[in-house]
Amino acid sequence: MIFLNPLGWLLSLLLPLIILLHLKKQQFIQREVSYLGLWEEVIKEVEGIKKNRINKYLLLFIQLLIGILIVMAFARPMWIKPFKGESLTIVLDNSLTMRAEEDGVTEIEKAKKEIKKYIKNIDDDISIDFVTIGRKIQTIVKGGSKNQVLNELDAIQPTYEVFNIKNKEAIFSTFPEPIVFFTNKNILLGDENIKIGDGINNIGIIDGKFDYYNRAALFKIRNYGEKNKEIILELKDEINWQDIRKINIPSREVVNVNWTDIPLNIDYLKIYIKEEDTIYGDNEFVLPIGDKYKKKVLMIGENYFLNRALKSLPYIKLTNIKKYKDIKEKFDLYIINERLMEKKLWEDKNIWYLKPPEEMVEGYLDKYSEMKIADELFSEDIILRDSYLKDFSYLKEDENFKTILKAEDKTVMAYEIEDKGKKIYSTIDFNKTNFSMKTEFPILIDNIIKWFLKEDKRCYEPGEEIYIKESNIRLKTPTKEININGEENIKLREIGKYNLIDRDKNIKTFFVNPPKEENIKYDFLSREKKKINKFHFNNLNKIDLKNIIICLLLLLMILEWEVFKNAV
């Protein structure tokens, strides 16, 4: 029980007055009489006095009870029912499209107003989970009140991240029903979906790739709106080369735009959408293609077939040395074709051993054996058939190793991932296998190199994280600088150019581009849609006792009157 007006209890200070007035009430008075015959009448009267005394004490008790109930009525008592476990999940879309702006108001601000309006009508006793959804799901409030949600709501800002529709299953399985979803997309995701705005009038660049072999750039442009659009695209380099095109994009479609014969000696390409629309963040895209953005690979020792395959990969810059010597330059990958201790190299590096340490080799087979790929990480675009090894050694079994290639069920190539970087150990002599002559060989080498280098990219999407190992350096983002004092994961939130700076020297440049959103027709429902009454949660969880007290007062006043009549 709670009291809405606890100051009403101050009236209880007046209750002693009832007792005082009762004590001062006139009692029976003794008088002298001249005739003893009256004693018979006196005895009868004494018996009546005892009865009247009992009625007067009952009258005092009833009057005190009436006073207490009056005081309680002014204090406004409220009985709280036990919480029955009603819950609600509010999901807010804070992906890139919620940055859409119309008349100076973004879609995210409109969504916030709708959420405030919605939760205003639900009961204070409801347990609310409040989450945002974009590239990932983030829980803002877990099992909180609507006031907690309101306190956190204003701080929510839209990201530059893609909306990941795959998160829907996690929403359904993790958070309590019913689920109310606020978005500007045509997505039926929850039990109730509240659409924000009248649609997105936006053109965005959602992907870009560069073909080094044909010197061609390919971009994907998406029309989010309901009307066909004609736009102007400008492609330019960092200095003075540029090209302009006009294209038509049907409503809710993706169009591929291809530029060929890109000039040599260009560091990066940048494409712009010239027209202004509701989302500015996805109107440009950068492709770093120059030599300074290529991955640096060092090969120690000679290996004809592998060297030829590596030179065919346009995204790496290969350096060959015949023997190990002091290497002052840092590389992204070291391929070692001689028996060499790892401690001679820097720590935290990616290393491919073509001649693993002898203690790792278990045995030797002098026979022809067919090779097979054992791990899907490296089998993309490869169907390995009729590829054989001759006279090969094989690796010992190790719980830390995962097999890439095997022959006679023996491991001839394996990998491990450790704190000091990625490692591959291979016992294959590429001069003693027909696999080196097959078209699948450079594809496997390509897959291996990409596996080594995929965490250290030059282009990222908003919401991805970059691990920075160096200390006492600065990260310059498109809008600010961040001091890095040790190993740290940095979440990339802004679109644009980033620089890692060490003592005023730029040690790395990379870019964050608009997210690669798929052309998903969001008009689907993953389960049967339910209708939620806006007042579904306005169950009576509190009972106001004021009316009950007033009824009791009326009954006691009637009882007090009857007792009073009998007491006089």
**Count of the separate structural domains:** 5
User: What ranges have pLDDT less than 50 throughout 5 or more consecutive residues?
Assistant: 518-541
Kindly report the name of the CATH homologous superfamily of the largest domain: Class I glutamine amidotransferase (GATase) domain
Give the CATH topology of the largest domain: Rossmann fold
Overall form: elongated
Oligomer state equals: single chain
User: What is the count of β-strands?
Assistant: 33
State the end-to-end CA separation: 40 Å
CATH class designation of the largest domain: Alpha Beta
CATH architecture of the largest domain: 3-Layer(aba) Sandwich
- Biggest sheet strand order reads 18-17-19-20-25-24-23-21-22
Number of helices: 8
Keywords: Membrane, Transmembrane, Transmembrane helix
InterPro entries: Aerotolerance_reg_N (IPR024163)
Pfam families: BatA
Protein name: Aerotolerance regulator N-terminal
Explain what the structure shows.
By secondary structure, the chain is an alpha+beta fold. The protein has five domains: about 1-25 and about 35-80 and about 545-565, no CATH class; about 85-200 and about 520-540, Rossmann fold; about 205-275, Immunoglobulin-like (Sandwich), CATH 2.60.40.3230; about 290-455, Class I glutamine amidotransferase (GATase) domain (Rossmann fold, 3-Layer(aba) Sandwich); about 460-510, no CATH class. It is about 20% helix and about 35% strand. It contains eight helices and 33 strands. It has a nine-stranded mixed β-sheet with strand order 18-17-19-20-25-24-23-21-22, with helices on one face. It has a five-stranded mixed β-sheet with strand order 7-6-3-8-9, with helices on both faces. Strands 26-32-31-28-29 form a five-stranded mixed β-sheet, with no helix packed on it. A hairpin with a 4-residue loop joins strand 28 (about 475) and strand 29. Helix 2 packs antiparallel against helix 8 (about 545-565). It is elongated, with a radius of gyration of 41 Å. Mean pLDDT is about 80; it is low at about 520-540. It comes from Maledivibacter halophilus. InterPro entries: Aerotolerance_reg_N (IPR024163). This is Aerotolerance regulator N-terminal. Keywords: Membrane, Transmembrane, Transmembrane helix.
